[in-house]
Design a protein that fits this description.
The complex is a heterodimer of chains A (478) and B (519). By secondary structure, chain A is mainly alpha-helical. Chain A has helices at 9-27, 36-54, 69-96, 100-119, 123-141, 148-179, 184-194, 200-216, 225-232, 235-260, 265-288, 293-314, 317-344, 360-363, 365-379, 385-399, 403-429, 443-461, 464-474; strands at residues 59-61, 65-67. Chain B is mostly helical and 519 residues long. Classes of the chains: A mainly alpha (478), B mainly alpha (519).
């Protein structure tokens, strides 16, 4: 039965590309240049085509991988993440003399794990996918072996990540203990059937799984690893993990909590409410105090996780749609912003302090304009995609009656505008004495950034089509 | 299917900005091209607004030139634009002031001219969009998008404390706006709850729903604070002096001339008619703040050493009149308020242009640095005098008509308010004439002032239209009042129709048939 493999075709394409990248690296003569990134692009295009063909089919493989529209939408987000990340990796690899084949292969394996996580409908498989993607990302974080900071970041990320995985696994074990299954649909049914008021065991299982997810989406108070890991990793890797991991983790988070644990929503929604509020507040308030652009964007990405949690709390169909739209927008925007950082990263100087951006507009008007577009979109200014994404989330929150959460959300987004503006102030309104510190922009990275910016305008001005897709995605979720 | 004139008014500046993106060359080469392109585009837009006015049917209070296309159908969001008498002349005002602002910048903006022109055009597009939007989502998009170009105009081309002023401007206005966004979402959700889950951001449909009185208060507060910050109403005005003083001349002209009116326009268009019950409750408080603003703004203006700051505080005072007129909620008051919005745009715009000319010559705006300019630059001072008198409200010039109508309306509503507000008229004469006297009369005791050049050809082109309009608006006010009146009456009907009976939380059945007609 070939058809039972249908649902895994997208991730198989990406895995094959990853394997090809490793093989290519093995046969590469030292110093020979090979278009290994091109292999990755081919694999991702394959994944995109496969997802396209699977759309509306609800293919299921082995009973545990479900290529429903929700999973496919996230797969497509991950394809976008993958393409943009591959395109902006060039300068980082050149400058740091990173092992090309391993780097791309790890990225592709990570993507395959993410895609699996987005489509898995079994807790154990979700755990497996989580480990696949996490291992790839741990190694990528520490891929600059001679950099103490990079290694420290990787170690920190790995230790805390392993701890969170343990929590997650423990939660799965308890869930299995209660329900006798790890399949999401069965868990949901059994949880609902067992009792009206949840038992302590159920709450324990729920709590442990929640901690595992909270760590992966860097929700407060499990966010501590984020600034260090984002700062220590090479910027292109940060772009990749800040978007890809978040997209995959939120997809699984939404799927698990709005299906298997949906019957217990009364128990977890208040907790997630508090976590969402704390995440938004901490992410923005601490972000204000940062002087390093990467750390600032790390806190900003924590805050954006908070907005996504608002949607999760709201739990309606509109909320699920808004998760998808938000993840797509956030992925494009954040990769764009980190892409600019990656391009400015210089062998002598990382150029990652806010003051390094002084006068960028006068030296590199195009790059400064692109960065401005990304920052304004992160800040939620119309007519950029970030505005529609936030509007979507807050519509869900208001319609579900979470007015106070929405108020916290919009006010923290104003605070976040303050720190995005700090970079803009530096780029445009401060003059810079030193000249020509910035390297030239490689073509692939430049193209990726321009495409990202165009996509942000497209999603901000004509979001209708993507909103329709999102609406059709959530109707199929379990 | 007629020509989509409103869309073209909004889109043309945008197209101009896009064209400017591709003007090649360094500052030296691109600056003259950019200036001419931007000026041409803004003049074309002005011509379009005049065309709009000439085609406008002044006898009707309804929205005209309506265009409507589904935009995000899943949420009932339409691209829905139209004008009535209230927004018509504000569009013309925007079209009128933008070319003047651009022209005035030729003498003062000498770096990154191309980017400057792009930002001014983007700003114009967003401002036009705010005035024509009849869909709350669309309105908010323009409302928020407007902040960005203004932020850059202040932050890049402003004076010494420009960064502080720019950041304060954007954060202050944004904080207030985001709460309005939530109120808008709340309205849409309320509509959806009464219409089977179908959202709508259509202003006309939202006018028709009955909002529970408790909710009205919160929604009204969210809207009113957003607009009050923009106006700015005392005590939300603190961003204004900073933004005005630090902004380049073109920025100040647009800020004072058009952007402040967005606040009062928002009150007339959205806050009052959408939430009549809450509006009736809050009107006396808002009017009190407005009267405090009138007097406070005037007193603070009196002691300013800096001309720009003086004009900025005079705006606080003058906009207080506008808000007072709106709160009176009678024909004279609201008509006067709309008229006064136009007046303030013309006369304060004119004042900022004149101050800009002085500042271009001396690179200072401190009153004490000047003196005896009448002997040096008689023509500029003559223009200065006319603009000053128009700002004070001398009969025969524009300011008089608006203030008179507002005071009349306010008197009919609450004589005490009118009495206090009237002192503002006297105070404004005091601070404006005193400033005028110190700058222009007396001996030329600072030799830096001795050799200043009088009005140049470009400056003539900037100031003559202002004076012509000021005179026209003073002498033939009916020309301008005629299109305003039916729309004001319609708006007042909307408010009074809702006010007494709006206590039930049910969706009005009247909105039902229009839902069915949706595309």
């Amino acid at each position: 039965m070939m058809s039972s493999f249908n649902a895994i075709v997208p991730m198989a394409c990406v895995t094959a590309a990853g394997l090809a990248a490793m093989v290519a690296e093995a046969f590469r003569d030292p110093g020979e240049r090979m278009p290994i990134a091109g292999l990755g692009i081919v694999g991702l295009v394959g994944a995109a085509i496969a997802s396209w063909l699977l759309w509306d089919r609800n293919a299921v493989s082995f009973g545990v991988v479900s290529a429903d529209n929700f999973g496919l939408f996230v797969t497509l987000i991950l394809v976008v993440v993958g393409m943009l990340s591959l395109a902006i990796s060039g300068p980082t690899i050149e400058r740091e003399r990173l092992p090309r084949g391993e780097y791309y292969a790890l990225m592709l394996f990570g993507l395959a794990g993410m895609m699996l996580m987005a489509t898995a409908t079994d807790l154990l498989l979700i755990f497996l996918a989580l480990e696949v993607l996490s291992l790839a990302v741990y190694v990528l974080t520490g891929i600059r072996r001679d950099s103490a900071r990079s290694t420290e970041a990787a170690l920190k990320y790995f230790l805390l990540g392993a701890l969170a995985s343990a929590f997650f696994l423990y939660g799965i074990a308890f869930t299995y203990g209660i329900t006798g299954s790890t399949r999401l649909d069965r868990i949901g049914g059994l949880m609902a059937a067992q009792s009206i008021s949840p038992t302590p065991m159920q709450l324990l299982a729920l709590g442990l799984v929640l901690v595992g997810f909270a760590f992966k989406v860097s929700a407060v108070p499990f966010h501590m690893w984020t600034p260090d890991a984002y700062e220590g990793a090479p910027p292109a890797v940060t772009a990749f993990m800040s978007t890809g991991v978040k997209a995959a983790a939120f997809a699984a988070f939404t799927r698990v909590f709005l299906s298997a644990f949906e019957p217990l929503r009364g128990s977890w929604s208040d907790v997630v409410w508090v976590v969402a509020a704390a995440t938004m507040i901490l992410g923005t308030v601490v972000g204000v105090a940062q002087t390093n652009v990467k750390r600032m964007l790390a806190y900003s990405s924590i805050a954006h996780g908070g907005y996504l949690l608002v949607a999760l709390v709201s739990a309606s169909d509109v909320a699920k749609q808004s998760v998808l739209f938000y993840l797509l927008t956030y992925a494009i925007t954040n990769i764009g912003a980190f892409g600019v950082i990656a391009v400015l990263d210089n062998a002598d100087q990382p150029n990652d302090q806010i003051r390094d951006y002084a006068g960028l507009w006068y030296q590199h008007p195009a790059l400064a304009t692109l960065m401005t577009i990304f920052l304004l979109s992160l800040g939620g200014f119309p007519p950029l995609a970030g505005f529609v994404a936030k509007w979507y989330v807050f519509t869900a929150a208001i319609s579900a009656g979470y007015t106070r959460l929405a108020i916290i959300g919009v006010l923290t987004s104003v605070v976040s505008v303050f720190f995005y503006l700090r970079i803009i102030v530096m780029m445009y309104m401060t003059s810079n004495e030193a000249q020509a510190r910035f390297p030239p922009v490689p073509r692939a990275a430049g193209m990726a950034l321009i495409v990202s910016a165009i996509l942000l305008f497209y999603l901000g001005i004509l979001p209708t089509r993507v909103i329709d897709w999102a609406a059709r995605s959530v109707s199929t979720i379990l | 299917m007629h020509f989509p004139i409103l869309t073209s008014i909004v889109a043309l500046p945008l197209v101009g900005a896009l064209v400017l993106l591709f003007v090649p060359g360094d500052e030296e080469e691109s600056a003259p091209v950019a200036r001419k392109v931007a000026l041409t585009v803004s003049l074309l837009v002005f011509a379009e607004t005049l065309l709009l006015w000439s085609r406008f049917n002044p006898a009707s209070g309804d929205f005209q030139f309506v265009e409507r296309y589904a935009w995000i159908p899943a949420f009932g969001i339409d691209y829905f634009v139209g004008v009535d008498g209230i927004s018509l002349l504000l569009l013309v005002l925007t079209g009128f002031l933008t070319p003047l602002a651009l022209l005035s910048s030729w003498g003062s903006v000498h770096k990154k001219t191309r980017a400057f022109s792009i930002f001014v055009l983007l700003l114009e597009s967003a401002m036009m969009g705010v005035f024509v939007s009849l869909d709350l989502f669309l309105f908010y998009v323009f409302w928020d998008a407007m902040l960005v170009p203004m932020y850059f105009l202040i932050g890049i081309w402003g004076y010494e404390r420009r960064i502080y002023a720019a950041v304060k401007f954007i954060l202050y206005t944004m904080t207030a706006s985001v709460l309005m966004l939530l109120a808008i979402l709340g309205m849409a959700a309320l509509y959806a709850s009464g219409h089977g889950g179908q959202y709508s951001f259509d202003l006309l449909k939202l006018y028709a729903i009955n909002v529970d009185s408790h909710l009205q208060f919160w929604f009204f507060l969210a809207f009113a604070v957003a607009f009050a910050v923009k106006v700015p109403l005392f005590p939300f005005h603190t961003w204004l002096p900073d933004a005005h003083v630090e902004a380049p001349t073109a920025g100040s002209v647009i800020l004072a001339g058009v952007m402040l009116k967005m606040g009062t326009y928002g009150l007339v268009r959205f806050a009052f008619p959408l939430f009549p019950l809450a509006a009736a409750f809050f009107a006396p408080y808002i009017a009190t703040l407005a009267v405090i603003g009138i007097i406070y703004g005037a007193l603070v203006a009196m002691v300013q050493p800096d001309m720009k700051k003086l004009v900025a505080y005079s705006s606080v005072s003058h906009l207080g009149f506008v808000v007072l007129g709106i709160c009176a909620m009678n024909t004279q008051g609201v008509q006067g308020a709309v008229y006064q919005m136009l007046n303030h745009g013309v006369s304060t715009g004119g004042l900022f242009l004149i101050v800009g000319m002085l500042s271009d010559r001396r690179h200072t705006r401190v009153i004490a640095e000047f003196g005896g300019l009448k002997k040096v630059m008689p023509r500029l001072v003559a223009a200065f005098l006319i603009v000053t008198l128009s700002s004070i409200g001398l009969p025969g010039l524009n300011g008089f008509v608006g203030e008179f109508l507002i005071l009349l309306g306010a008197f009919r509503w609450d004589p005490r308010m009118a009495a206090f507000a009237a002192t503002g008229v006297i105070l404004s004469a005091a601070y404006m004439l005193w400033m005028f006297q110190r700058v222009n009369y007396g001996p030329v005791d600072n030799e830096k002032n001795a050799g200043l050049a009088d009005l140049g050809a470009r400056e003539w082109a900037v100031i003559v239209p202002i004076i012509a309009i000021a005179v026209a608006m003073g002498v033939v006010p009916n020309l301008f009042l005629r299109p305003i009146e039916p729309s004001v009456d319609r708006m007042l009907n909307q408010v009074s129709r809702g006010a007494p009976s709006r206590v039930t939380a049910q969706a009005a059945p009247a909105a039902e048939p229009t839902t069915g007609a949706r595309r």
